[in-house]
Amino acid sequence: MEPVLQVDSLSKRFGSIVALERVSFALEAGTILGLIGPNGSGKTTLLNTLNGLYRPDSGEIRYLGRPTRNLRPHQLALLGISRTFQNARVFHTLTVTQNMLVSLVHARVHSAEAQERARQLLTFVGLERYQALPASELSGGQQKLLEFARALMTEPRLVLMDEPFGGVHPEIKALLLERIREAQQERQVSFIIVSHEIPDLLSLARTIICMSYGRIIARGSPQEVSEHPDVIAAYLGHAGGQAQIQTSPSSPVSSSSYFEQAGGHPS
Ligand SMILES: Nc1ncnc2c1ncn2[C@@H]1O[C@H](COP(=O)(O)OP(=O)(O)OP(=O)(O)O)[C@@H](O)[C@H]1O
C-alpha cells in the first residue's frame, strides 16, 4: 500500500544551525509514529516543514504520492494534513464551537454539516457542554482537547501533534490518549506525535524515530529505540550511559524526572 507520507532527504538550516539533515522516512496509512529527541533536535522544525509552515532547503515530501513543496498550511489542511501546536493555539475570545468552525473557513462544507461535525467532535473529546463558552474559560488541558478536536474537523488522513500531553492533567491526558487511539483505529487517521512524555508515546506509537542535531539517529519499535545506545547517549549527553528510557507509565522514574536528569543535548 502507498504510504500516507514519504519524506526523502529533507534538510533545513537556519543560518549556521542545521535543524534538519537529510531526514527520510515513510509513514504507513493508519499508523502512529512517535518522534522523540533532546531539546533542539529538530522535531518541531520537521512538523513545521511537513505542514507547509517552513519550506525545506532540499529534499522532498510526498503526501499520498503527491509532492507538497509549494503548498501552504491551509492547502495541506484541505488535502488532509492537520496540526496541533506545543502551546495550544485556540482563539480565546471565540466560543468553543466557533474555534471548531474556523478550521473549515477554506473548506466547502455546508454550515449545518459543519455545525453537526463540530458537535460530534466536541462530544468525542468530552467538551460538548462547553461549546458556547469562550475558549479562554477552558483549562490548558481542555484547550489541547479542543485543538485536537479542531484538527479532526477537516477529516484529515494525517494529524501532526506537537507535545499534546505536556502540562496536561492526568485525567485529560488519559482521555486524549484514548481518543487518539480511537481516531487511528476507527477513522484510520495516521499520526506523527512529538512528545517528551516518553512512556505515553511508547505506549501509543507503533514506530518511534529519535532525532539528534537534526538527524535521525534511531528508528524502530518502541523497545528497539528505547534500548538503542545512540538514543541513550543522546539523552544523557555521553556515550554508553547506564540509564534506560522508561517504557512503562508505571515505571518508578517519570518521564519528566527522566528528562530533568537527562537534560538536552550535550554542550
Ligand atoms: N525559526 C527559527 N529560526 C532560527 N532557528 C530556529 C528556528 N526554529 C528552530 N530553530 C533552531 O533549529 C533547531 C531545532 O529546533 P526545533 O524547535 O525544531 O527542535 P525541537 O526538537 O522541536 O526542540 P524542543 O524539544 O525543545 O521543542 C534549534 O537549534 C532551534 O534553535
From TrEMBL:
Signal peptide: none
A GO CC annotation given for this chain: plasma membrane
Biased composition regions of type Low complexity, renumbered to the chain: 248-257
GO-annotated molecular function: ATP binding; ATP hydrolysis activity
PROSITE patterns registered for this protein in UniProt: ABC_TRANSPORTER_1, ABC_TRANSPORTER_2
Family matches, as SMART domains: AAA
Protein name as catalogued: ABC transporter domain-containing protein
PANTHER family, A to Z: CONSERVED COMPONENT OF ABC TRANSPORTER FOR NATURAL AMINO ACIDS (PTHR45772:SF9), CONSERVED COMPONENT OF ABC TRANSPORTER FOR NATURAL AMINO ACIDS-RELATED (PTHR45772)
Domain ABC transporter: 5-238
Region feature (Disordered): 243-267
A Pfam family per the record: ABC_tran
Keyword field: ATP-binding, Nucleotide-binding, Transport
Domain of life: Bacteria
